[in-house]
Every structure is written in structure tokens, then in C-alpha cells.
Design brief:
The chain is mostly beta strands and 93 residues long. It has a domain of 43 residues. It contains no helices and 4 strands. Strands 1, 2, 3 and 4 form a 4-stranded antiparallel beta sheet that branches. Strand 1 and strand 2 form a beta hairpin.
Length: 93
């Protein structure tokens, strides 16, 4: 969003990088730190530099029979991830 206008609608193709990751271990949740590196706008790939997004798994112990709690980081397809530009994006009208 820029001044209330959507620049990249839902479904826009983006590429990112994993900056840090840790697998879960017994009693210790895993985590993941992501950043975006490019976005496709008007059929053109643009390099982007964004803040990172940090996600941590559930810290609770999970019984082997429980499926609702997971120490791993998981995202659903409708989960919105927020990144902020840290460098201006060169847009042409």
C-alpha cells in the first residue's frame, strides 16, 4: 500500500529469502526469518529491499496424538505477512 492505494494486489508473485531458520527440538520451538527480494509488477521483476518477518513455532510440548499444536512454524495460504520497504521501489507510471 502506498498512500492508501494498493500497488501489489493479492496473488502478486514475490520472491524472498530465508535469513535465519532453526528447526524445532523437544521443548524448543522452531523459528523462521524471511525477507522479500523481488516482486513482479506489470510483468516486470523489480528488486526490493524489505524489513524481515519473524515467525516462531508454538512453544508448548506437543503430545504425539495432538495435531492442533505444533512446534514448527506454519503458515496458511490466507495468512498475511507484512513487510516494509527499507529502500524506495522504482515505479514508473
Amino acid at each position: 500500500m502506498l498512500q492508501g492505494q494498493t500497488l501489489a494486489p493479492s496473488g502478486t508473485v514475490v520472491t524472498g529469502r530465508v535469513l535465519a531458520a532453526k528447526a524445532s527440538a523437544p521443548g524448543e520451538p522452531g523459528y523462521l526469518r524471511l525477507t522479500l527480494s523481488s516482486v513482479i509488477l506489470n510483468n516486470k521483476a523489480l528488486d526490493v529491499h524489505t524489513s524481515s518477518f519473524f515467525a516462531k513455532g508454538d512453544s508448548r510440548e506437543r503430545p504425539k496424538s495432538a495435531a492442533l499444536s505444533s512446534p514448527d512454524v506454519q503458515f496458511s495460504t490466507d495468512r498475511r505477512l507484512a513487510f516494509r520497504l527499507i529502500q524506495a521501489l522504482p515505479l514508473q507510471e
